[in-house]
Amino acid sequence: MDPWLVMGRPVAVAGVIVVVLLALSAPLLGIKMGGINPNILPADDSIRIAQTAVAAEFPNASEGATLVLRGENGAPPPAAVAQIMAEAQRVEGVRLVVQVAEKNDIVLLRVLLSHPDFSSGSEDSVRSIVLMNALARQTSILP
Questions:
Q1: In this structure, are residues 88 and 129 in contact, taking their beta carbons and an 8 Å threshold?
Q2: Which end of the chain, N or C, is surrounded by fewer C-beta atoms within 10 Å?
Q3: pTM given for the model
């Protein structure tokens, strides 16, 4: 490329470069990033069939969601933890909420969902739990 062309018409050259870069990146517009899950496999794949059967026959084997509750000055009060567990239990798509650990200023809750992991239903349930107003009162939550 002639350096005088670039120096003489920098805006036009920059415009052409931007248009070319946009054209090259167009295929990435519809891309969705996500975790690895069996739903990316063909429906007749043996691994996907096995995963679907395990999820149907053993619903508690799903990963579900883990909620990390952190108190402001020490562990969250038991009443606040109980309230969060009760409100999370009422979210659509939640089957069971259990406290699995407590240490220092952190309480760990396990949420078992009725939707398969990585599905839009499970994502909606987790979003609903995180957005609950009660979670912001005395405890911060890290989804």
A1: yes
A2: N
A3: 0.56
